[in-house]
Design a protein that fits this description.
Number of strands: 2
Structural class: mainly alpha
Helix content: over 70%
CATH class: Mainly Alpha
Number of helices: 5
Order of helices and strands: HEEHHHH
Length: 169
């Protein structure tokens, strides 16, 4: 029975990984500085279903595989760390619990502002030699667009998925 459970989990993780890479690399609006996509959805689902460790692994692997299989620019390990941290944040807030709107707002703030706007902008300063403040001000538009979008989408997902997952167990 344990083998069947592990196989099912690996299949789910593989599907979520594939979806994340496709959404991030092919179905996103990307410039060298700003990226708008729904790639957070598979990470959130992984966080809901499997927790922070597996969501972190998925986030890191998605960046690593996506950057090597479908490169947009040069690979930089800092973005892999950002992907892993984002996955962990989703897992910490969403794993096996009903998530009120306030918690989703905190989750999106941490993921979008601290990791996306702060840490990933910091990584871009290494790659572009553009000062942090210049990159930060140009990437604020990305955060302004994605924050309400993520809150609405995550609220809808958590209302449907969390109830289903919690009622099964």
């Amino acid at each position: 029975m344990k083998i069947k459970h592990n196989t099912r989990m690996l299949v789910h993780l593989s599907i979520l990984l594939t979806i994340e890479i496709v959404l991030s690399r092919f179905f996103s609006i990307s410039t060298p500085i700003v990226k708008i996509s729904f790639a957070f959805v598979p990470l959130a689902l992984c966080g809901i279903l499997y927790g922070p460790v597996w969501a972190g692994v998925l986030g890191g692997l998605a960046d690593l595989l996506g950057a090597n299989l479908f490169p947009v620019g040069m690979y930089f390990p800092g973005f892999t760390l950002s992907g892993a941290l984002s996955g962990m944040v989703y897992g910490l807030f969403l794993y096996k619990r009903h998530c009120p709107l306030g918690n989703i707002a905190v989750l999106v703030f941490l993921q979008r502002i601290v990791i996306g706007l702060g840490l990933s902008t910091y990584w871009l300063t290494f790659l572009t030699d553009v000062p942090f403040t210049v990159l930060f001000t140009t990437r604020i538009l990305q955060a302004i667009i994605l924050i309400p979008l993520q809150i609405v989408v995550l609220r809808a997902i958590t209302e449907k998925i969390s109830t289903s997952v919690l009622s099964i167990e």
